[in-house]
Structure formats: structure tokens, C-alpha cells
Amino acid sequence: MKLSTKGRYAVMAMVDLARHAQAKPVSLSDIAARQEISLSYLEQLFARLRRAGLVKSVRGPGGGYRLARLSMETRVSEIILAVDEPISATRCTEMGATGCRADRSKCLTHDLWEELGNQIHLFLSSVTLHDVLERKLTTRITEAPGVPGPGSSMAAAS
Amino acid sequence: MKLSTKGRYAVMAMVDLARHAQAKPVSLSDIAARQEISLSYLEQLFARLRRAGLVKSVRGPGGGYRLARLSMETRVSEIILAVDEPISATRCTEMGATGCRADRSKCLTHDLWEELGNQIHLFLSSVTLHDVLERKLTTRITEAPGVPGPGSSMAAAS
DNA sequence: GGAAAAACCAACTGCGTCGCTCGGATTTAA
DNA sequence: TTAAATCCGAGCGACGCAGTTGGTTTTTCC
Predict the structure, then answer these.
(1) pLDDT > 90? residue A40
(2) Region for residue A55 given its phi and psi (left: phi exceeds 0; alpha: psi -120 to 50; beta: otherwise)
(3) A142 assigned to some structural domain
(4) pTM of the model
(5) Residue nearest to nucleotide D27 (CA to C1')
(6) B153, A138: Cβ pair inside 8 Å?
(7) In this structure, are residues B16 and A108 in contact, taking their beta carbons and an 8 Å threshold?
(8) Does residue A48 reach within 7 angstroms of strand D, measured from its CB?
(9) Which chain B residue shows the shortest CA-CA distance from A157?
(10) In CATH, what number is assigned to the domain containing residue A40?
(11) Rounded mean pLDDT of B116-133?
């Protein structure tokens, strides 16, 4: 899971698409104007989204894009996975399968990154386009014993 | 919170430092050899870590680095924040303060990214170097039944 | 049939960061 | 004095990002 601004643009565009879903499909130029994203860049993003089966296209005048599924069935994690490069597998990164040489002394942090990846994916797949539109963010996890909040200072704990 | 491989290298190095902490400080060339990271690159990372007050240096032969605090008082989030660029503030990204033009229609995803940032920071600041060494990852949050319907819990933030 | 609106497609560009190298300088133990 | 180590800055090749250019195809509408 890559978490670049590219994925953010894609999610912005998809939320916009979900918001303005009508009988007629939504054209990319409309989205581009509303979200202030380059039209051609949007085209590239939506090419990937279409290949991933998240949107359907209608060509010709009056055409545009539609969500392939309902907004409450389209998860943010899917959008980001669709547009981002599948991570460059640097050294021990991710590669859930075999990788990581099993030499634990060199890869003490393996479990940490794996768990972090899980956390991120878990969160992003718990949020759908509908949730973003309705501003229903799950906001769970809020309490964890002895863990200081993000913003403020971190008094030692644990 | 940036989550690049740069931060990962820094955490790897810091875990290595914590693991081999003895009476004598640990030299970067030792860490470089064990973790297979370029020495000069390590130097750059540790320059930042030192400025952030996470490590202390000892110059001269037999010198090296020491943790400035105990390993259970050094959080992974601090390490990553120390070495990563403070994010380029693209459009509506993060910028916890004023930003984001308050034009909600253009920034429907603002709350989403903010909440995601909170999740990541919360997780990474719940893990200390000591935890990584002992492989005690908190692994909480693990519920979220199946692929969870998020709307179930919580009303919006904002 | 022709014009125009839209999706499609491919190549290229400027830029910034990453991971790293090189060439030093300073400090300090032996 | 030598050598081990931290310090420091400049530069480099590669890559992804965001965008641009310049098309083509499909399809609606007049």
C-alpha cells in the first residue's frame, strides 16, 4: 500500500464521481474542473480504475464514467491499489510471500512493516466512498492503553 | 507522516543500534555492515537522528552512536518523523493547521486523510524500539469483523 | 453526412526525492 | 603521529509524479 498523492487524487475523483452520480454519466472534464486536476492526468487515473473494474465508461458526447458498483460497495483501499505502483519491493519491504531472506537478524523490522501495512489496509478497506461522502469515518481504535495521542508530546508509556 | 523506505532504513538502523548497545558506542560502519546499508547514507540519516535528539554521538576512534533514551522510550514514529521530509503539503494534504481552503466540496476527502494519518501515527507511536526487538507488536484493533461495514459505528468527525 | 463531445492512447517533459558516492574536515583514542 | 571514527557538502543516476501534447476512436446531435 503506497499512500502517495496519486492515490489521493484518485480517491478525490472517485468521491466526486459518487457525489454527482445521476442518470447521466459524469465526464472527466467536469471532475477536472471541480477538483482542479489536469484532465489528461485524470484520464490516466481512470484508465487504471477502469481496468480494475471500479468504474465503467460511456463513450461519445454525453458520455463519461459511472461507478461500477454502489458507492457503499467501493472501498477506498481498492482505489488506491488500482492506481498506485505495486511498490518497489525494496529490500525486505512487504512482499508478503516468501521474501525477506528469513535472516531475522537483518530484518528485525519485518514484522513491524507488515503489521503497519495491515493496519493501513484495514483502515482504508473499512471506508467506502459512501462513508466519505457522508463523513462517516470509523474513528475506532481511539483508545489504546497507555498510548499517547499523535499531536501532543509523548510522555513515556508502556 | 511519510512512510518512505528512507524511514524504514532509519528504523532498521536504530533497531540494530538498540540491539547491540553495550558499554561502548556502536559505530556506523558496524551497522552498515550488518544491515547492508551504505555508510555515507547512514551518516546522513544519523545526522538527522542526532539533531532530533534520538541518538548521541561519540567522536574519535572507538566512538560511535548511543541511544539518547532507553529503547523502550524511543518510539518508531519519532524515528520516521526525524528522517523524512515534512511532506510537500500538496493541495489539501495534512497541514493540520489552517489549510484546506475550507471549501468542503473540493476537499471531501480531507477528514479521511487526516484520520488515516492519525491511525498511522497512533500505531507507530505505540511501538518502541524495545517492542521491535522483543517482537511485541501491539496488534490491537484486530477486530473489525470480516470486511467490515464501517458505517456501523461512529458518526462523523468535523 | 458532418461537427463536436467525449473516452481512449502513447510519448515526452520538468521536477523532486531517493539511495548512494566522493572528497574532504574535524575530533580523539592509542 | 596515526588512524578511527564522526561530521559535512556537493553531486549523481534513476525513478515516480503531475502534467502536456497530439493525436484516434466512438457516438450523439443537427
Answers:
(1) yes
(2) beta
(3) no
(4) 0.81
(5) A60
(6) yes
(7) yes
(8) no
(9) B73
(10) 1.10.10.10
(11) 91
